[in-house]
C-alpha cells in the first residue's frame, strides 16, 4: 500500500514542478489547481518529515 502512495506522491510532484517551470518559462501564471496541489504536497512533505523525525527520536529513547 505504501508503494501506491509513494508512486502517487512522486507523480503529483513531478506534474506540479514541470507545470510550474513551464509556466514560468512562458511567463504565464499558474492555474489555481496546480498551486493548491503544490501547497498540499508541501504541507504533506513537512508533516511526514516531522512524523518521521518524531518516530526516530522516540525509538532512540526507548
Protein model, in words:
This protein is mainly α and 62 residues long. The chain has one domain. It has 2 helices and no strands. It has helices spanning 2-25, 32-61. The two termini are 28 Å apart. The mean pLDDT is 94.
Helix percentage = over 70%
Strand content: under 5%
Low-confidence stretches: none
Ends distance: 28 Å
- What is the H/E order? HH
Instruction: Quickly count the domains.
Output: 1
> Could you say which overall geometry the principal axes of the C-alpha atoms support?
elongated
Write the layout of secondary structure elements.
Layout (H helix, E strand, L loop, with lengths): L1 H24 L6 H30 L1
Helix pairs in contact: 1-2
How would you describe this structure in keywords?
62 residues, mainly alpha, elongated
Can you summarize this structure?
The protein is mostly helical and 62 residues long. 87% of the residues lie in helices and 0% in strands.
Amino acid at each position: 500500500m505504501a508503494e501506491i502512495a509513494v508512486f502517487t506522491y512522486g507523480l503529483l510532484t513531478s506534474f506540479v514542478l514541470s507545470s510550474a517551470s513551464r509556466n514560468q518559462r512562458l511567463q504565464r501564471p499558474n492555474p489555481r489547481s496546480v498551486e493548491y496541489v503544490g501547497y498540499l504536497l508541501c504541507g504533506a512533505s513537512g508533516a511526514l518529515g516531522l512524523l518521521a523525525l518524531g518516530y526516530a527520536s522516540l525509538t532512540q529513547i526507548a
